[in-house]
């Protein structure tokens, strides 16, 4: 039996839904999705109201997903203009700089003006509806402004996390054929400068854009190329702040976000306008039990989907005050998160288990120094939260009075799919609990047979929800193959899960070749292809292995070319190489020289075995009889890397 934490009655009293209401709404949402979403779709403004609600097919021959398809709207209008009359002077974004002495409050009126100016500046440089605009930005207000400016004119943004390398940025510029790049001179994180424009210059050597707009953040010395590069401050100073929001179809693309899969290069996940915004705003309100006047803080980076849906679009659509943090949890001290909570009286705090684990390691004192009295709801996202971290978050940070919403979702899902609701759901540490409205999870065995009751299996979703991705940008076939062909007719998440006797879901992690490092998603194939691109490497295999802080770390097996000798210097060089090829988040944690890799007679690497060896679990290597050369395994076990 797992621990159960019943709903806090004080929270329940004020909450949007209690358990009875959850059950009733959930039932309606799956029995009659047209009626349910037809009603809740009205939570955003429509220029032309929809008459059709759901038109979706998961049929493997013809996957087609449309929501509210004959309605027209605009995301920036919903996040800005519609609030001006009622809350123009309310703070929309609290920006907290890397340096604690720097912060800024931006009202809805200010934000609206700044978005309109940038939108006009982009239009003046030829960016129009449907064009792709890549953002490579630090966590500064201009990142949100740029997203909303794109949305306002119907341009499609594609954000590339500022930690990615020039090569990774170049691939993503090319992947969507970007017309414009918006970046900053340098970023600032933990007191250190990040050379964003220099990286962008290197990327634009490989894939050039028409216009590069550069925000002045640090004033550092950078190059500006005549005719292409312009300062954000200059182009926005000169423009009008009158820029009507484009009337866009509900299914007009809003953004592309590249994410890793089990094979090949990252794919461009495409989200569209109407359904995405309805889902992001509704989940933001219900999952965090957001109420008028709450100060809400999600610590993610806008380079990831969490930043899109739960720093910018969901909260702003709801007229919330959303906090945007430029820095890191341990700068200038390990109390920083808690100091920011006190400084801005944060009520709702949403972070990742990896941050919780690293702060937990510092003990209770850095937290107890702060009052944290404003906190009401805590959230977790990105990877399974281990019970030890859950308990610390609950007792030390939340003082036992703040429900923890452990939210399971993915870049592809656009918003949260499995989660507790603060006033409705009894909590079990480590469980994402129950599905959100409209979400129908199913566990299936490896043959795709649905499993009933308390069981464990592969997690699928059997019907569409409005926030779902619509396609892989420019490659609908890949979309179908990746998500709808393993178990035909169902969306396969790539995750495994257990369902307990109360119908609660416990996500057990990826069952494919995707690993989750500090909540960042990484394809083992990407790291492998970076390694084999090194002239001394013949072959490489990459697997995930348990890591105390990161959840999973990157364990690498490398076979060198016949004339190369392993050495510590070469090891360091290869780690550096991967950081250079992809970015620091892909840094291998352990590297093992392996003269041979376990392969089947047909030459396929048996990753199952490599995973077990990396996990120190060689008691259960399973069937090794199909190996071409079983002695390889003994050699690998003998030379395994010590992970402690
Ligand atoms: O394995 C699941 C894990 O993160 C994956 C999705 O990663 P990404 O697309 O980068 O989105 C992360 C933020 C939504 C999932 O397939 N994951 C995410 N949230 C949880 C989780 N695993 C367990 N519990 C969660 N709450």
Automatic annotation (TrEMBL):
Protein name: Acetyl-coenzyme A synthetase
Coiled coil: none
Cofactor: Mg(2+)
Keyword Lipoprotein attributed: no
Keyword Magnesium included in the entry's annotation: yes
TM segment ranges: none
Residues covered by the AMP-dependent synthetase/ligase domain: 81-461
Residues where Mg(2+) binds: 532, 534, 537
Annotated residues for binding of ATP: 382-384, 406-411, 495, 510, 521
Residues recorded as bearing N6-acetyllysine in the entry: 604
Region forming the signal peptide: none
HAMAP family found in the cross-reference section: Ac_CoA_synth
Annotated CoA binding sites: 189-192, 306, 330, 518, 579
Biological source species: Terasakiella brassicae
Domain AMP-binding enzyme C-terminal: 526-604
Superkingdom: Bacteria
